[in-house]
Every structure is written in C-alpha cells, then in structure tokens.
Amino acid sequence: MGRLIQADRRATLTEITTRYNRGMQQSICEATTRTTLRWMGYNTRRPHQVPLISTTNRKKRLQFARAHQNWTVEDWKNVAWSDESRFLLRHSDGRVRIWRKQNENMDPSCLVTTVQAGGGGVMVWGMFSWHTLGPLVLIGHCLNATAYLSIVSDHVHPFMTTMYPSSDGYFQQDNAPCHKARNISNWFLEHDNEFTVLKWPPQSPDLNPIEHLWDVVERELHALDVHPTNLHQLQDAILSIWANISKECFQHLV
Questions:
Q1: What's the average pLDDT block by block, 10 residues per block, for the chain (254 residues)?
Q2: What pLDDT is stored for residue 44 in this prediction?
Q3: Distance CA 199, CA 64 (A)
Q4: Which of 42, 142, 222, 226 could be a cystine partner for 37, CB 3.0 to 4.6 Å?
C-alpha cells in the first residue's frame, strides 16, 4: 500500500483500494484502507503550491546557487531586494469550511460572498536591505517601463548611493518585462559605477526574501480590527503596516 501511495500521491481512497485488491486472494474494503493508511501515518492534505519551472530555468537557478554558494552573511548584507505585489480589497480564502446538511447548500448562512477581481486592489513596489527598510511606492493599474524608470531614478538610485557609498551594493530585481526594457538597461549601464545589478535567475520568487515581507503585510491586513472598505483605506493600511515592520523582522530574512 505504501508503494501505491508513492506511485500516485493523488489517488483517491477508492482507487487505492481497487489497485491493492488486484491479484489479492482476500480483498479489503475502503474503511480498512483508510485505517491502514492512518496507521502508516498518511493523511490527506492540500499540496503546497510551487512554481512550474522549466528545465532550462532549473539549470539557471542551479548556476545562481553555485555562483553564490560561498557568499557570507556580510556579502548578502550588500544586496537590496525589490519586488512588486498586489493586495486585494477583499480576499477569498479557498480553505474555508462550513458544517451543513445536504439540503442547506443555498442557505444564506452557508454562503460566502465574492466580488469580481476581489473588489479591486492596490499594487505596490518596495525594496529593503539588511541595513534598512526601503521605500514603498504605490503603482497605478500596471507597471510599465516608463513608470519603472521613474521608480529606479527616484527611489532605487538614492537608496543605493546612500546605503552603499563605496559602490559595493547589489540591486536585485526579477525578470519582469518592464525590468528588462531597453531604457531600463541603459539607465543601469550609465550608473554601473555606483552599484551592480544582481543577475537573477528566472522563475525564482522563492529566493527573494521580500516575499516574506509581503506575507507580513497580508497577515497584518487580515488581523486589522476594522478592515478597509475602499481602496484609499487599503492604501493607507498597507503603507502604515510597511512603515512599522521592525528591524528585527527584515534583518532575520537576510
């Protein structure tokens, strides 16, 4: 039965029982299968979601890891991490469960209201390093190369030159199209004597510690006693939460 589980993690209880009984002189029922699996330590769980990474990008991620395997904590302190994130006004949690009878599926107390596109949302761009929490910038409906150039010149540049006056800082950004636009690349070339752009492997949000800060903001939004009811309130809440992230919190991420 353990081999059946290893061969197909998504098999249903019925499928496992059927496959187990094939060729067996004495068959078992689904209840026995369930009891046996629990005795073996198996329980059904929601699988963790991970990005689908191509073979080529797997190799690039490995190359990145090998190139930086000897970096010390002091080296990583010289990296400024950045990213964009979107926070919805209303968040639908697919993990919600309720108790109801078979004929109560449309009872108002058994329904969860939804709003298309979460009722709107707020997109932000932020950055931080081990030394300090950087700026958080509100973005319009989308981030294009023109808007990103303004962020780079107005926020990234002063942050990097202030935090790393010896020009030993690294700026991290992912491979979003607006980050790779020609005008952005040209701007970084013009300022390569002030800091270095960290070469980032594709499909690697899991390597960026700023993702943990987005999670902090999300959890703090959910924990608010009074939840935002419009986008302006959501913006104010996000900016307030970001500004109050403790130094202990972000320094433990690097």
A1: 88 92 89 92 79 88 96 97 92 52 67 57 96 95 92 98 97 96 97 97 92 95 91 96 96 89
A2: 83
A3: 8
A4: 42
One-letter amino acid of 209: P
Residue with tokens 């002063």: 158
Count of C-beta atoms within a 10 Å radius of residue 183: 12
| Predicted pLDDT of residue 116 | 47
Other CB atoms closer than 10 Å to residue 1's CB: what's the count? Answer: 15
Residues 164 and 169: their CA atoms lie apart, in Å, by: 5
What is residue 93's predicted lDDT score, i.e. its pLDDT?
A: 44
Please provide the distance, in angstroms rounded to a whole number, between the alpha carbons at the two ends of the chain.
43
Token pair, residue 2, equals: 């353990």
Alpha helices in the chain (DSSP H): 2-7, 13-21, 30-39, 55-67, 73-76, 145-151, 157-163, 182-190, 210-223, 231-243, 247-251
pLDDT of residue 120: 84
Residue 165: CB partners within 8 Å, gap ≥ 6? none
Token output for 45: 């769980």
Helix H segments across 8-156?
13-21, 30-39, 55-67, 73-76, 145-151
Judge whether 77 and 129 are in contact, CB under 8 Å: yes
Q: What gap in Å lies between CA 88 and CA 227, rounded to an integer?
A: 12
**Cα 140 to Cα 54: distance, rounded to the nearest angstrom:** 31
Single-letter amino acid code for the residue at 245: I
Residues 233 and 223: their CA atoms lie apart, in Å, by: 15
pLDDT for the residue numbered 98: 55
